[in-house]
Amino acid sequence: MWDKIVYILITIITMFLFKNKFYKISKYVEYYLKNGLIYFVMICDGLIFTPLFIWKGKNAKNGRIMAEPSKEVTKIFGIKWHIRNAEIVSENRGAVIVLNHQSALDALCVCQLWPAWKNAVLVVKKEIFYFWPYGLALYLTDTIFINRGNPKVAHELLMNKSKDLLQNKIKIVIFPEGTRNDDSTKLLPFKKGAFNIAVEAQVPIIPIVVSPYYFINKQKHIFNKGHVIAQCLEPVSTEGLTMEDVPDLLNRVQNTMEKVYTELSDEVTKDLPPDYPLTTTKKY
């Protein structure tokens, strides 16, 4: 009996002396488990929905079907999502939606937004197509895969595919930064693709600003619970604009989104303790 008591006492003393080390190890494990879970969800989506979509046929409506159950997964992460002004993107019309790009968690953010978008297709880098079976499932949602290494080919593909989609009142969702933004204090410079499409088709641009994922810190291997706000902004008309107006249009939209991004950043972090390990660069 005494040997068990001594063992328990030694265990308690050890945990007390090395509690900071144990805490770091547990946060390290949690960080990689949650990151791995994001990709695991993608794989499961591919396994579950690819056979269904093959039977249904390639269709933009498939995206919403896949998103509905997937959005519930974030409850495991302890993330609270707040979608503001969802009615703006719910209108049945063709439009170009632009939103900021932060990390792999955006895949689950998209699932939160898709029910509001209803009929929409994503524009993503072609490498994602080869992440099977998820890439195949995305292909069957009519996702547009572009080659970022060949801007000319990517532009032609976008312009050709977007015309029919927008005429059929299907929204096109683009991350105008073009890549993940490692700096959570500001947005990257926007690329012209989304704005060229909108002006060419004379459809509105609908900006969506997603607050920074302040609860993820790669350097310290932290992936905590958190709060994310996705705010849909008023549509920006392109009626009467020409390609010469694209640079000004791009700047206006980016400036508006950056202002809202700063406001949302302040809002989601205002109640955090002073020693909270916020990240400003290199999330993951």
Automatic annotation (TrEMBL):
It holds the Pfam family Acyltransferase. It catalyses: a 1-acyl-sn-glycero-3-phosphate + an acyl-CoA = a 1,2-diacyl-sn-glycero-3-phosphate + CoA. Keywords: Acyltransferase, Lipid biosynthesis, Lipid metabolism, Membrane, Phospholipid biosynthesis, Phospholipid metabolism, Transferase, Transmembrane, Transmembrane helix. SUPFAM superfamilies: Glycerol-3-phosphate (1)-acyltransferase. Residues 95-213 form the Phospholipid/glycerol acyltransferase domain. One of its GO terms (biological process) is phosphatidic acid biosynthetic process. Its EC number is 2.3.1.51. GO terms for cellular component: endoplasmic reticulum; membrane. It is an enzyme of class 2 (transferase). Coiled coil: none annotated. Pathway: Phospholipid metabolism; CDP-diacylglycerol biosynthesis; CDP-diacylglycerol from sn-glycerol 3-phosphate: step 2/3. InterPro entries: AGP_acyltrans, Plipid/glycerol_acylTrfase. One of its GO terms (molecular function) is 1-acylglycerol-3-phosphate O-acyltransferase activity. The chain crosses the membrane at residues 6-23, 35-55. CDD domains: LPLAT_AGPAT-like. Belongs to the 1-acyl-sn-glycerol-3-phosphate acyltransferase family. The HXXXXD motif is essential for acyltransferase activity and may constitute the binding site for the phosphate moiety of the glycerol-3-phosphate. This is 1-acyl-sn-glycerol-3-phosphate acyltransferase. The lineage of its organism: Eukaryota, Metazoa, Ecdysozoa, Arthropoda, Hexapoda.
